[in-house]
Amino acid sequence: MKLTRNDFPDDFLFGAATAAYQIEGHGFGGAGPTHWDTFAATPGNVMRAEDGRLACDHYHRWPADLDLLKAGNFDAYRFSTSWARVMPDGRTVNPEGIDFYDKLVDGMLERGLKPFQTLYHWEMPSALADLGGWTNRDTCHHFADFAEVISRKIGDRVATTATINEPWCVAWLSHFIGAHAPGQRDIRATARAMHHILLAHGAAVDRMRSFGQPNLGIVLNFDHAAPATDTPADIRAAATWDGIFNRWFIEGITKGSYPVEVMEGLAPHMPANWQADMPMIGQRLDWLGVNYYTRHLLADASGTPWPSLRDVPGPLPKTQMDWEIYPEGLHGFLTRMARDYVGDMPMYVTENGMANADEILNGSVIDVMREDYLFAHLDATKRAIADGANVKGFFYWSLLDNYEWAEGYEKRFGLVHVDFQTLKRTPKASYHALTRALAR
Ligand code: IFM
Prior knowledge:
Blueprint: E1 13-17, H1 20-23, H2 35-41, H3 58-71, E2 76-80, H4 83-86, H5 95-110, E3 114-120, H6 126-129, H7 138-154, E4 160-165, H8 167-175, H9 187-210, E5 216-227, H10 232-255, H11 260-266, H12 278-281, E6 287-300, E7 309-312, H13 328-342, E8 347-351, H14 368-386, E9 391-397, E10 416-418, E11 425-427, H15 429-438
Parallel strand pairs: 1-2, 1-9, 2-3, 3-4, 4-5, 5-6, 6-8, 8-9
Antiparallel strand pairs: 6-7, 10-11
Bound molecules: 5-hydroxymethyl-3,4-dihydroxypiperidine (IFM).
């Protein structure tokens, strides 16, 4: 028997999530260039050098996309407001950009959808990237200005505002691994980005709270870190990865400190006097967003530079991203957050979903594996609630197939298939299954 909304508390919200650069089409409406445009234009960074210029053309097709959410019986929609659309050079307001989000939010309300806004889902305006982006402390203050501008316009109608989506991706994946824009591989840049992204979060919360904006949070991504074997060296490798991925951001915010395992590598590269920023970073949250997809097995790689660890392929079934399917990890993080960090504070599963090599056959997309993935993670969420985690909602990633960053348009996460030649939308079997489960 599949779960339905009746298996969750009455006030539990079901939603789907997207992000501006991945769906809107940044070639329209006066949006400024972003570091993703230049990252994508640099050979070797992105599959087929694809970018977000057109994406799903949501900029023009948003009414029909919101209709899909309403027809799917969703309660809420998680979207992001592009900094480079609202302020093309990161500082100067583009009225057309603001108007777009103004209409979009009204469109959600007209359809009975609660707007869950994210401020930064990765499209750093190029003008600020030129000045060092997240390695430059000034970016934090520009970000607080952006938070104020957009919140003063639409903040009266959004249900919640998240500052940053997935700081680990913004900082580590983009400055240490180099897989996302700006594609750096530099430990000094990494240490600065790891700290500044949290400072930007704190400065934005502080600013928005100063004029009464309610329901402020952050969206963190978590990766279940398991040792490849039970040797002390592998256990230590997993603990280091856990520190880098799962503990740095939540401990910075809720405990005012960074994990020792991570400072072992980053301490010499941190910005001067970083400790003085911890009170600003530790602004009270109203809620926490938890993004969860997979787990990693970690092994010791002594003899290589810090963090001296490596990934080991796991045995579980994998998605099109080659990510292991491990729903238990979601239960683990929701209960761990409640127990160790946020107590009774509301949490939302702000992203969970899988990529699949979906194809249209006779007009339909039969994505059985996605249905199984989705319902297994809903079950993990339900069990976490039963075990005391105050989880108030679940957002599937993503409503539409979209621009999957370095993977271009190759990897399909949507409940709704998008033909990237014609931009036609075709709801998949998983969309129909969820629609049935969410019927009142
Ligand atoms: O597409 C991304 C999204 O932008 C952030 N979270 C993970 C998703 C899948 O990789």
